């Protein structure tokens, strides 16, 4: 995608051929800062501290984290240690485990002298696969926006509501929920995005709005609880969100607050779609509401906010009383019955066990 008019990805191999470059997303939207990852611990920290975030990008970073570990020590013991360290960084996004398993399979039975090179090859393939998948999601989701545009009067825009950041910053490039939006915009469709601010980390306000602005897509940042009001008054045509894990029955785990958007969409007869890259499907989880682990993060994410002061300084301030307890659930699960459809690289399918297994029998079979 574009940053200041120039193509950029969220993760890349540095010119030295082995260290990893990423955008430090904690500095956005006020500063574009990159970080260079050179060790396993630095890669794990980047995931844990959310320098990078988003299920596809977490997977790609974890794969490169394995590369960095093997470059330092290619023994079986080091391989197992790296796997365990990276797996523990974020418990909810299933792409993390998928990417680690893919990398492990690529190197496990190789001589130690070949392991690092094999890991780098697989990590690179994972990144290119992510771009291809998201590009296909964009193509498959575009007709949804085109159909709405055809029903509009001349000059009217298609209003899409999205939650959190499921854009190219959450992936290697293109994004998941944003892929159809970017393609519609590039094809000349008058599309406008309502971007939820998405407390507590404000990924919608700081990341989605930033990348939409960089690409020239009209958008408006709204408070998290505004979506229902907009839907009631006919100001939202379609909801498209991303996901961190989808259970075998079609239940969708995404950033906290997604479930409430789905309820409001159902009450107002507005289609609610989830952009779903296949590595995000977890066929080992039968029921998402009951079985997907929900990450609980540090209380400071709720109790404090960071922004740019009037004098230009970046400051963090506390907004919660000093001694008030804080709960910070990072995700919620939207039941499949509230999902109009899943936009995948293999087409738009129902949020159901049958549809998921039918579209991705190769992945469903490995979970048996």
Structure summarized in a few sentences:
The protein has 368 residues and is an alpha/beta fold. The chain is 41% helix and 18% strand. The strands form 5 sheets. A 7-stranded mixed β-sheet has the order 8-7-6-9-12-17-18, with helices on both faces.
Keywords:
368 residues, alpha/beta, Rossmann fold, 2 domains, seven-stranded mixed β-sheet, 13 helices, 41% helix
Domains (count):
2
- Please tell me the CATH architecture of the largest domain by its name: 3-Layer(aba) Sandwich
The radius of gyration over CA amounts to: 20 Å
> What is the CA-CA span between the terminal residues?
38 Å
CATH topology of the largest domain: Rossmann fold
Category from helices, strands and their pairing: alpha/beta
Number of helices: 13
- Identify the CATH class of the largest domain: Alpha Beta
Strand order of the largest sheet: 8-7-6-9-12-17-18
Taking all residues together, what is the mean pLDDT? 96
Looking at the structure, what is the overall shape? globular
State the helicity in percent bands.
40-55%
Give a short account of the largest sheet: 7 strands, mixed
Number of strands: 18
The CATH superfamily title of the largest domain: Translation initiation factor eif-2b, domain 2
Beta-strand proportion: 15-25%
List unreliable stretches of 5+ residues. none
